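ENTRY TYPE: paired fold submission
RECORD: A
CONTENT: sequence, then structure tokens
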Amino acid sequence: MANESHLKGRANLVPTINVIDELNEYMTALNKNECKTYVSSNKCVFEGGVNAIEAMHTPRFLPTIRYSGFPNHELKLKVGCSIMLIRNIDHSSGLCDGMWLIITRLGDKVIEAKLLNSNNCVDKVFILRMTFTPLDVRLPFRFQKRQFSVMLSYAMTINKIQEQSLEHVRLLRKKSIFIHGQLYVAISRVRNKKGLKFLIAHDENTDKTENVVYPEVFRNIRQSFNIGYSLKLL
């Protein structure tokens, strides 16, 4: 599991986050090194006094919140595990969002790791905990999470791997890929078709993905622009 040459340029992709934790836990279990668990600290951010909504979100509830771009409440890591940064830390050292690393040492307050897929001259880097605060104004309350800005990277979503080129991609499809363009993004991440593999594991008994098209959109366009000819949906 700590074979650096084997980990370089490889990714297991899934359409949604539902199965990521399951796959990452399975791959981590194959690593026989000692496991160290890092738990996040969470708190509500009160602005202008405590309101009723903020008061009901107890310290026991906050760790259960899964928010896009945030690390998990519990990070179970081992030396030799493959991880990915989910925040920009230091561009000069190559510590950017989406960078892959291999863990070389686990301390109580710091993670030592080695960069993968990088020509940066820095051999080892050190990762500290960061404070994460969601910026979405639609949330009924504000909270903060303090945790290491990493995630296990044996499995990840298709969106997370955009703009990267890999040697080997395995796509796990437990249900049909719905979002337009996701399948294209997943397939186009690999440089050679020999490095692309699909695992279809769902109950639909089909190896096809439906191209979801809403005819109403095209009809509205035609009516808006007074297009006289018919549009054939492919």
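RECORD: B
CONTENT: sequence, then structure tokens
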Amino acid sequence: MFKLLTENWALKLLSLVFALILWFFVMGERKLERSYAVPLEMKNMPEGMMVANDVPSVVEVRISGPRTLLVNLHSEDMRILVDLKGLDVGLTSFKRLEERLNIPAPLKVTRLSPSYVDVKLSRITVKTVRVKPVLVGRPAQGYWVEKVRTNPESIQVEGAEDELDALQQVETAPLNIENAGSTLVEVVPVDYRGKFSRLKTPQNVEVEITIGQRPGEL
């Protein structure tokens, strides 16, 4: 053991002196403060669940410290990780985000915006809802809309259970029947803009609008 401590003692002493000089240089130099846009990432999403609220993808972080360290620190070298492992359905607040940021010891976080994030988890579910055709305009004089049929009559929507609970139907893009005097058949997209859900399939439906002549107009 003594041999290990005394072997190459000159080189070890030189290394120690160099480390001390570097430490005094870093600690004694002029300090700065800079802002960084640090990515916020979530990991370990529980199976069968999804995030059902708006969570920022970037956190504005203000860091102060020695100039030498700050000029070599870049946003892409940092990230804030939020671990969702073991979480259940509902809202969870993640505070003290600065503790999730790995930066060298002489550097200090002076401000974060936001300083915390709320993550709402919801079960992923699939719901079948009816398709409601949207008609604009009026048929030609003496004609009326006898019947409207869609194919398929219903479609599936997939997404956050909380959002789908209130969903009863989806609408098509507007169909113009202005001055129509005969039956119309059109393929139109379903106009659905769910925030935390999406159309599973299909995204287009066929709409048949039966236009008939009013009694007495024959």
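NOTES ON RECORD B: The domain at 124-213 is CATH 2.170.120.40 (RNA Polymerase Alpha Subunit; Chain A, domain 2). The longest strand covers residues 117-132.
STATUS: closed
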